[in-house]
Design a protein that fits this description.
By secondary structure, the chain is an alpha/beta fold. It contains 6 helices and 10 strands, in the order H-H-E-H-E-H-E-E-E-E-E-E-H-H-E-E. The strands form 4 sheets. The chain has a 4-stranded antiparallel sheet with strand order 5-4-3-7. It has a two-stranded parallel sheet with strand order 1-2. A two-stranded parallel ribbon has the order 6-10. The longest helix has 15 residues.
Amino acid sequence: MNQYHPPVADFLMNTAVVDCKHPQIQILAASLSGQTPLIRAKNCFDWVRDHIEHSIDFHREEVTCKASDVLRIGTGLCTAKSHLLVALWRANQIPAGFCYQRLTLDGPNPPYCTHGFTAVWLDDWGWYRCDARGNSKPGIHCAFTPGQENLAYPTIYNGEQTYPDVWAEPWPDLLAAMEKLQSISQYRSDPIDACPPVADLCVSEPTAPNIHSAETGHVLP
């Protein structure tokens, strides 16, 4: 548990991609409200995990990136789903940011891809990392359980890593690659292996001591 309090303004920003002030995001965020920030945070997580179809799991070809587009179209890769989740948290005035892993796309060998998930600030827990990519793939059981991480993927192969930071904004290199993507089939044949920014708004988050990963191996982020 990390009690380092985030620079609140940075992790509540409305941006072109994390457009938390979009009317439809505001409406949904209000409908997911609860009596405490913890309840609101869990409601937002569960909704994105269960209601936005993971592009690969559901064989969708639409490419989404901006949070409001993910909501409108109803699908996205892990990175796009994280944009919507962070937008919903911020719309509920809960500081939140972005986390990333570098994973192989399928099995022990390259190519690599960038897997995106999220971190939310909870006053009683500090930064809590969680993954709303969806449990629509066999073997994945991600849940919102502060105090214990339930990330979708372990890092087990050469070249894989989990980056320890929480970023206030999505990686620029990742966004540039997503903007060029024409279809999910294109992603499957040429996955995005983005580079972290040299300098950005982020806080360092040491690896949590109590981590559970849903799989012992992985195929596709």
